[in-house]
Specification:
Layout: H1 4-15, E1 19-24, H2 43-46, H3 59-64, H4 66-82, H5 87-99, E2 103-107, E3 124-126, E4 129-136, E5 144-146, H6 149-152, H7 164-168, E6 179-183, H8 192-195, H9 197-205, E7 207-213, H10 220-231, E8 235-239, H11 245-250, E9 256-259, H12 263-276
Helix pairs in contact: 5-12, 9-10
Bound molecules: adenosine-5-diphosphoribose.
């Protein structure tokens, strides 16, 4: 599963003392039954019945139809709550235990699967938010509030109506305004306070090997993180069954490589490789 070039890059990274960072996207959670965004069954491909797919992920849509956006996100929350971490999530947790302080995980995924006991990762940066939380839509404070258990225990569809009583559970406890999902929308910008912008760019500068897994590379910060790693002579390996924006950027680079493969299989193989070399590992 790991080709010679990937093994060579892993070998070199282990001999060095810089970070070995993983940057993951929706492809990691595909094996958990959570649709990707741009695949044929993707969230943006199918969208909701009366809104263009990606418009559901905008502040603009929320401002004109908060109910429709909440219905859409509560549907996604119920999918994520029912999902289980797959072998790829569990392998990431094991890899962190083997690499110790040299491990970092930057995730675009808002599904919460890095927090389950069997797949818990500590040195984790969520750069697109976290569906398990909501925050004041008017930003009266930057506090995050857990999505009420009531919603997380439900099975909801895109069309499940939002009753008045349910809407009362989505009110900011501080100012009484509506809350919004704690996720980054397409018409909003990355920042440090919610999405760890500066911190993850610093991580990329200290990264000797960046393993990008399961992302189309469609969003800006992942592209910046790849460029930042390469600019500091780090190596970037893109793991994806298909070519994508990032694998195209890496083509022909001495420090870039596209490994065709599925996230669970490749992550298990990386964990196995580290296990075999356990004795020489520096942490
Ligand atoms: N293993 C590895 N990669 C996979 C697998 C798998 N089993 N299955 C699918 N993929 C790949 C697809 O080839 C695709 O390149 O995962 C990628 C998923 O791409 P997207 O659906 O665009 O998801 P992602 O890259 O995470 O989107 C980035 O865009 O809409 C925003 O906020 C949203 O975080 C999301 C961001």
């Amino acid at each position: 599963m790991l080709d010679q070039r990937t093994k060579g890059f892993l070998e070199d990274a282990l001999k060095g003392d810089r970070l070995i960072t993983f940057l993951v996207g929706a492809g990691l959670s595909a094996d958990s039954g959570i649709p990707t965004f741009r695949g044929k069954e993707g969230f943006w491909t199918i969208g909701s019945k009366n809104a263009t797919p990606q418009s559901m992920g905008t502040k603009k849509m929320f401002d004109v139809n908060a109910d429709e956006v909440w219905r859409w996100f509560l549907y996604r929350i119920s999918i994520c709550e029912q999902a289980k971490p797959n072998l790829g999530h569990i392998a990431l947790s094991s890899i962190e235990k083997r690499l110790g302080a040299r491990f970092a995980l930057i995730s675009q995924n808002v599904d919460g699967l890095h927090f389950r006991p069997e797949s818990l990762v500590n040195n984790l940066y969520l750069i697109h938010g976290d569906l398990r939380y909501m925050r004041c839509a008017d930003e009266c404070s930057k506090a995050l509030y857990p999505i009420p258990l009531f919603f997380r225990e439900q099975i909801r569809s895109r069309e499940t109506p939002l009753t008045f009583e349910e809407k009362q559970k989505l009110i900011c406890p501080k100012c009484g305004e509506m809350t919004r999902p704690h996720v980054l929308w397409f018409d909003e910008y990355y920042n440090e306070k919610y999405y760890h912008l500066e911190t993850t760019l610093r991580v990329a500068k200290s990264t000797g090997l960046l393993v990008v897994i399961g992302t189309s590379g469609a969003t800006n910060l992942p592209q910046q993180l790849v460029a930042k790693t390469l600019s500091r002579n780090g190596v970037v390996v893109d793991v994806n069954p298909e070519t994508n924006i990032i694998s195209d950027k890496l083509r022909g680079l001495a420090h870039g490589h596209h490994l065709r493969g599925k996230s669970s299989e490749v992550l298990l193989a990386i964990d196995g490789y580290l296990r075999e070399r356990g004795s020489e590992l520096k942490t």
